[in-house]
User: Fold this.
Amino acid sequence: MVKFEVIFIGLILYLAEGKREIPIGAIFHGDNYEAEIAFKYAIERVNMHEKHFELVPNVKYVSPEDSYKTERKVCELASEGVTAIFGPSSMLTSGIVSSICKTIEIPHIITHWDPEPIGGWDPEQQAMTINLYPEADVLSRALHDLIVDYTWKSFTIIYDSDEGLMRLKDVLQIHEPGDSPITIRQLDDDVDYRPLLKDIQTSGESHIILEVNPDKILDILRQAKEVKMLEEYQSYIITSLDAHTLDFEELRYSRSNITTLRLMDTKSFDIKNAVHDWEQGEARMKKIFRVSPEHVRTESALYNDAVKIFATAIRELDATEEIEASKLSCGNKNLRQWPFGLRIVNYMKVKTEHGITGPIIFDDYGRRTHFQMEIIELNRQEGFKKIAVWDPTNGIIYTRSQEDVDLQIVESLQNKTFIVASRLGAPFLMMKERKEGEYFEGNNRFEGYSLELIDGISKILGFQYRLELVPDGKYGSYNKETKRWDGLVKQLLDRRADLAICDLTITYERRTAVDFTMPFMTLGVSILYAKPVPQPKDLFSFLSPLSLDVWVYMATAYLGVSVLLFFLSRMAPADWESAHPCKQDEAEEVENIWDMVNALWLTMGSIMGQGCDILPKAVSTRVVSGMWWFFALIMLSSYTANLAAFLTMERMDASIESAEDLAQQSKIKYGAVLGGSTLSFFRNSNFSTYQRMWAAMESTRPSVFTASNDEGRDRVLKGRGLYAFLMESTSLEYITERYCELTQIGGLLDSKGYGIAMPVNSPYRTAISGAVLKMQEEGKLHQLKTRWWKEMYGGGRCDEHATTSAADSAAELGIDNVGGVFLVLAVGCFCAFILGIMEFLWNVRKVAVDEKVTPWEALKAELKFAMNLSITTKPVHNVPSESSSSRSSMRTESRRGSDSVGRMHNIRAGASLLNVDKIGFMFK
Assistant:
């Protein structure tokens, strides 16, 4: 070992012979030991490769707060002829060095964060300063892009100094008016951070940005673990570029996501080579120094790169003009400037280099504006692992595949037991019916769709679960007065459950509080209502095609047309004619056959479609008759077309058919589950119909809202058509499969889905969504729904009932439907029979009088003739005392006289109708 050192030192001395010395100064604080080592051995490596010059370090030490001593040390370095000054890392002392270097034009190279001064950068003031630390605004933009990529809408910033807030300028500007407020909490001098962390936990915040000194990071995270703030739902972003140098071994297995940024690629050859130089150099000095590339501090790497880029500038400029060091004075009397300083700085600004910290590019102010950062995440197996890179041009580019992410999540699920919150409600979750001697515990207490769904997911992903009921039995709604959630959502926000599964609808409001998987079932809001009760069978159903009003109007029209025909026929000359058709021209008297009976008979024959053996002759009466025929034809066609439909259709009570029908009436009340998504749908809708329905529901007393779907179902059953229940179609379908007296009214009022809820930013959402998708593709979700909706506990019973009803409706018409027609026919036949008997007896009386026989003899003779079916002609009855010719002549004369008197009477009556001075009607 000693021989190797002698050879190495000899080699350095050999290479140093004939080289021109170029002194460079550096100012360090007492805690910059690693940075000092990096600076010293970076110079040593440069000197090994340079042939014409040798960099000679001159190191001074000052306190970070001692500005007076800092000024004196700078002047000492200037008097010793240094060509550049590196450091210090304190903003206070660095400003003093920068001012002096600007005056005597010596390059000043710094490696710490330097905020933009109030009023902006002064080109003259920054003329001699080069800063290798990332420019403040660009670094802030990197944090901004990371937060946006993580979709953090709200977060809490924990900081310990004003400089920290200045570094987060862009982060604070990403807040929009509609976003949740950003909380900013400052650490005090107390080293117990638990009260602060508990306050954050109580607020429900799960996103935290740590902008603190690296020395405090581990203490904060350890105490966060103690108060259960390092669970899988919390996420941390550490802004310090030196967070990777800390020992996270004790926190590696925490389930929280911890992300930070790093300025260097710890696997690069440059950093491994530099670390080797540091360790070997210290070993030669009989000192022990150990550091791995993964734990190199950012400041140390920047010092290494600063020496490298300065040496490059000296080499390039020295090739054209020999650079000589000058001893300068800070005093006003002997003040002069180094002639090469400004040239070196300007060259460094335009020169592009690549060092341990990646590409090195400066702007006109000497600020490093282009750089590349690694986004690293704490990993159980490897510690911090790179997951993406960021640069100002391309933003975030992930270096790991989605398969790697999914695999990591699935691996973390293997030994996890999820607490799954749910609520009772058929068919999603029900208590098992215990038989005598049976005892259930744990998950075996339950059964239903939700249980089998989460069981299928657990088998795919390999996790365990414990099912628990939500205490208040609610789904989850936000109370604007208390500003708190209830139900399943509250369980997730309070971290009392990892998942929530039931008929929980994915809504915008809930989505702001929790995350959801992809929907495992789609649905919409619909209306549950009682089926209308069929009316008793009616013998007179054949009257149904026309309403009572139409029948009344028809009867009125019938009488009106008959009367009109009667008067028009008596007024029309064409309807007055001779009684003998062969003596029309010779007749001395004419007669009118259109009495009121004939008019009524003609009208009746027309409406019955049978016509009449007498027809009107006048134009006016024919027009009236034709119009009546047309009317009768239309009415008869309409009646015939609708008769079958009305006879086969069960007459129902007045019913609703849609949400519009509900909104337009006030007799039937309607409501929904209090605190459910259906109620939120109506409350938040902008559609006028739904707004009107919400106003009606809210103002109705007693309340129309229910605590559960079962209560709503029972209320519909008991309401007897006076209550409708608004609910989700899946639950409605389950109910109507088992309660055949209930039905769905109308279609779906919206479209949405059920999803599995979990805390915001849960790392398991993608994996669980993938399992749901897999079950859907394999048809298992369809099988589950068929099993619990149509097979279990009475499912499908109403399908059989509906089939039977459909068969009945397609059968032949029964006597209950058309019996009235036969009844009317029987009554008519009976009336006709009675009239026939009366007419027969009246005729017997006339025969008895005409033939001068007793009524009994006349009755026997007429009955005997009527009962002899072989006789087709009937002789005229004769009076015994007179000859047939005399009797015939007498009857003829008598009839003529009677007819003559009748005709004269009718003529006088018709004339009286035309007399305007005498108003009256004569009916004979």
Observations:
- The chain is about 45% helix and 15% strand.
